[in-house]
């Protein structure tokens, strides 16, 4: 309540939780009722966290008619209140996660799935340190069926070419990025470096590493809400859609992580450039889980347009040192900063599920002392590697059958996610390319 007392201008609040697609589901509540919300929480049907991308119930879900569509209990996360700078009226946001009415965590909540993985690490005396790199597009979608780079608020001109690491491209949207950084500070999102990327109107912002994976996933989820909301205030879309333009590279959400022991030492560091045996165990776990994980890393039909050869996104299941063509990259660094970069997830992912699956897979490998294959060198696309599932249907099947995923995620969540994705795949087949873009541009 301290935040609300410090902001008496806030008359309404939003309460929201992430569903399986990472879409914010919630309510608008007058701020004067916040006391009750903080102590008693609020209620949503369990099925609300298991809706398809259109916000429709999943047909034949046991959460709906079979069970009577009962309510779960939504309680505030550790995050507390924060502003929503993209709205006109001063408004507070209170992130939530779901429990059963008796206080048990609800297995269908993606944030609870990540908390389970974090508890596994804690039980082993380990702490993951996580950072994300989020790529996104600024898009003028004012003309139906025709996407283009927005005109610069400074010059009024459109820059239609790719401008990798271009200061001119950043400066063209300087007011937007200044507002974005100010908003990140107000929301306690640790936004670091911004760069322009390899496609027109594409940018990347890094979020600083956190020794709390739940905080890191919260940061990524909230950052996506912020970019999408703030961009609309400027008259264009901020989109994390995996690949809005067929002719250009798509957007990823690369995740970096290391693991600290009880003494605060990085278990991936053995003083050498190669890193420790435990680094290779973690890599092996990530590689073994990758076929089953692909649905989490590429959860939508459009996601698979990004995962094609020679498009700066992985297609083969391999790892390498300082090599951006591989699915798993070990960046060059000082030994104490030795870490793993997972390059498979798209920008359209649910950050909670993605963080849970990556960290869970690495822990599988650590627990099993799994042996990684030899790292590759050169262009990963030229190596005869096992390939990621090539399409949405294959990824759904691999996720459902994966023994590695069953070690990481609750059975209830796996069942819900599979039902959701199969329903989406069925109805997506009826949409035109234009309708697909319209659907994904804002939702993911």
Shape by Cα distribution = globular
- State which percent range the strand residues make up: 15-25%
CATH architecture of the largest domain: 2-Layer Sandwich
Question: What is the end-to-end distance?
Answer: 31 Å
Low-pLDDT regions: none
Q: What's the alpha carbon Rg, rounded to whole Å?
A: 21 Å
The helix count comes to 13
Number of strands: 15
How are helices and strands ordered from N to C? HEEHEEEEHEEHHEEHEEHHEEEHHHHH
What is the quaternary state of this protein?
Answer: single chain
Q: How many domains, as an integer?
A: 2
- Major sheet attributes: 9 strands, mixed
Task: Supply the CATH class of the largest domain.
Answer: Alpha Beta
Q: CATH topology of the largest domain, what is it called?
A: Creatine Kinase, Chain A, domain 2
Derived structural class? alpha+beta
Query: At the fourth CATH level, what is the homologous superfamily of the largest domain?
Result: Glutamine synthetase/guanido kinase, catalytic domain
How much is the average pLDDT?
Answer: 95
Helix amount, in percent?
25-40%
GO molecular function, one term: ligase activity
Cofactor: Mg(2+)
Domain GS catalytic: 110-444
Organism: Paracoccus panacisoli
């Amino acid at each position: 309540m301290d935040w609300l007392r410090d902001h008496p201008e806030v008359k309404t609040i939003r309460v929201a939780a992430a569903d399986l697609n990472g879409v914010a589901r919630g309510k608008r509540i007058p701020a004067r009722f916040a006391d009750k919300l903080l102590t008693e929480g609020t209620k949503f049907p369990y099925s609300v966290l298991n809706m398809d991308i259109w916000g429709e119930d999943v047909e034949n879900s046991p959460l709906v008619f079979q069970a009577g569509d009962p309510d779960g209990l939504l309680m505030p996360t550790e995050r507390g209140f924060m502003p929503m700078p993209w709205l006109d009226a001063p408004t507070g946001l209170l992130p939530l996660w779901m429990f059963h009415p008796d206080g048990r965590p609800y297995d269908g909540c993606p944030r609870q799935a990540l908390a389970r993985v974090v508890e596994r690490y804690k039980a082993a005396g380990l702490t993951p340190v996580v950072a994300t790199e989020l790529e996104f597009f600024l898009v003028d979608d004012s003309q139906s069926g025709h996407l283009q780079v927005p005109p610069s608020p400074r010059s009024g001109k459109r820059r239609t070419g790719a401008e990798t690491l271009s200061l001119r491209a950043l400066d063209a949207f300087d007011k937007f990025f200044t507002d974005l950084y100010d908003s990140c500070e107000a929301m306690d999102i640790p936004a670091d470096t911004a760069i322009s990327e390899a496609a027109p109107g594409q940018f990347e912002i890094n979020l600083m590493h956190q020794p709390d994976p739940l905080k890191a996933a919260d940061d990524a989820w909230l950052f996506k809400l912020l970019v999408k909301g703030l961009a609309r205030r400027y008259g264009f879309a901020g989109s994390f859609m995996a690949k809005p333009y067929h002719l250009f590279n798509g957007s990823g959400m690369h995740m970096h992580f290391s693991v600290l022991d009880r003494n605060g030492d990085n278990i991936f560091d053995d003083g050498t450039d190669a890193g420790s045996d435990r680094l290779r165990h973690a890599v092996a776990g990530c590689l073994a889980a990758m076929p089953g994980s692909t649905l989490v890393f590429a959860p939508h039909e459009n996601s698979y347009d990004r995962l094609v050869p020679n498009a700066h996104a992985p297609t083969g299941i391999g790892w390498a040192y300082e090599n951006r063509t591989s699915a798993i990259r070990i960046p060059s660094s000082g030994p104490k900063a030795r870490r793993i970069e997972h390059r498979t997830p798209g920008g359209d992912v649910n950050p909670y599920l993605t963080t849970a699956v990556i960290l869970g897979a690495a822990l599988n490998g650590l627990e099993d002392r799994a042996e990684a294959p030899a790292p590759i060198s050169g262009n990963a696309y030229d190596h005869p590697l096992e390939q990621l599932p090539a399409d949405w249907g294959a990824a759904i099947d691999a996720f459902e059958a994966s023994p590695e995923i069953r070690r990481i995620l609750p059975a209830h969540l796996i069942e819900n996610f599979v039902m959701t994705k199969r329903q989406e795949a069925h109805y997506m087949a009826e949409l035109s390319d234009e309708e697909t873009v319209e659907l994904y541009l804002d939702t993911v």
